[in-house]
Structures are given as structure tokens and as C-alpha cells.
Design goal:
heterodimer, A: mainly beta, five-stranded antiparallel sheet, about 0% helix, globular, B: about 110 residues, mainly beta, four-stranded antiparallel sheet, 11 strands
């Protein structure tokens, strides 16, 4: 049973608009969450993270929101750029085993010029 | 440019062959990881090494044999693999400690004939 779920396999947005990627988790022991971006033929690249003591973390155009009661997090990209087109993976870990990342299946984002 | 280098990038082997995947990191990290990504599945953690010691074996079959001679190098020795072992194998590294993002290499695409 998947502990980290990304229910949208793909998302398409116009350049300049906001992209919102969603992630749900089932394990209440998760307390550290990360987003990775992956281009074809490359490995995942760390994008942004958030710990459970926060509900928002911002880094430039990227903001991650965490709703612990709903076991839901989201990644907002604004404004979206064509270079943001990639597969985005959500990942989570428990404090006691923080090296054990559990990944979602990913969402393919396409930003159209 | 990634600080984690994996070789080879592509490997085709028969079920009776023996081959090795290599990973090298230049980031000064002390934890290294092997992941497997099969088609339409999330990344799955296989092994974790902290300071050259294996700390996690995620129920991986013995036909996969990891080796970590030092904190900068990680190998995955392969023998008598099965067709279902065809996948993308990703290496990652991180500092040791809580809430440390992992940095990935570009992976080895393995095909078993």
C-alpha cells in the first residue's frame, strides 16, 4: 500500500500561471517532506523541503505548503516557466529513520509557452 | 553538474552474467543509498550505508550485493538477475543527520535479456 500518493500523473499549465502539484500521505509518523524534480535521462534533483513544525516554506518561485491534519502537501510554482517542465516527486520520511525516504509516483508537469 | 556520478549509464546483460554498478560522490557526504525505479512504480529504497556500514537492507534479493569500501564509493554487484530486475538504478548520498536531503546521480538503466 502506497504511503505517499501523487494522484495526478500529469499537469499542464500556461507559462506565467501558477502550477500546483499535490501529494497525500498516510503515515502519521512522517515529519519531513521533500520535493524533487526530474528531467529525462537525469537523476532527481532536490527542490525544496519542509519539516512538520512548519506549514509553509518558500524558496524563490517555489513554495511548499503542509497541512498535517489533512496529511496533504502541495508545491506551488509561480510564475511557471517552460524550463519547469519535468516530473515532480514528493517524498517523506520519519524523524527516527530520516534516511528512509518514501517516494510518490510523480507528476509530470508541462508548462506551455 | 551532479556531485554524484554513476557508471555505466546503460547496461544490458544476460541472466547468467555478473556485472557491477558504480557510484562515486564528491560532496563529502557520509551516507550513500541505492534505489530502484521500475516502470510506473515509485522509487524504492534498496540499501543504506552510513560511514561505510550497511544500516538498511529493504528485503532485497541476494542476487544484488552492495559494497561500500569508503564513504565516497558505492557498488552494486549483480549476478543471475531476472527479467523483472530491469529498471533504473539510482545512487544517492547525503550528510548524516536528521532532515538532510539526498542528492542523486543520473542512474544506470539496466536491461536483463
Amino acid at each position: 500500500d502506497q504511503q505517499v500518493k501523487q494522484n495526478s500523473p500529469s499537469l499542464s499549465v500556461q507559462e506565467g500561471r501558477i502550477s500546483i502539484l499535490n501529494c497525500d500521505y498516510t503515515n502519521s509518523m512522517f515529519d519531513y517532506f521533500l520535493w524533487y524534480k526530474k528531467y529525462p535521462a537525469e537523476g532527481p534533483t532536490f527542490l525544496i523541503s519542509i519539516s512538520s513544525i512548519k506549514d509553509k516554506n518558500e524558496d524563490g518561485r517555489f513554495t511548499v505548503f503542509l497541512n498535517k491534519s489533512a496529511k496533504h502537501l502541495s508545491l506551488h510554482i509561480v510564475p511557471s516557466q517552460p524550463g519547469d517542465s519535468a516530473v515532480y516527486f514528493c517524498a517523506a520520511s520519519e524523524l527516527s529513520g530520516s534516511e528512509k525516504l518514501v517516494f510518490g509516483k510523480g507528476t509530470k508537469l508541462t508548462v506551455n509557452p | 553538474e551532479t556531485g554524484v556520478t554513476q557508471t555505466p549509464r546503460h547496461l544490458v546483460m544476460g541472466m547468467t552474467n555478473k556485472k557491477s554498478l558504480k557510484c562515486e560522490q564528491h560532496l563529502g557526504h557520509n551516507a550513500m543509498y541505492w534505489y530502484k525505479q521500475s516502470a510506473k512504480k515509485p522509487l524504492e529504497l534498496m540499501f543504506v550505508y552510513n560511514f561505510k556500514e550497511q544500516t538498511e537492507n529493504n528485503s532485497v534479493p541476494s542476487r544484488f550485493s552492495p559494497e561500500c569500501p569508503n564513504s565516497s564509493h558505492l557498488f552494486l554487484h549483480l549476478h543471475t538477475l531476472q527479467p523483472e530486475d530491469s529498471a533504473l538504478y539510482l545512487c544517492a548520498s547525503s550528510p548524516i543527520g536528521n532532515n538532510q536531503p539526498q542528492h542523486f546521480g543520473d542512474g544506470t538503466r539496466l536491461s536483463i535479456l
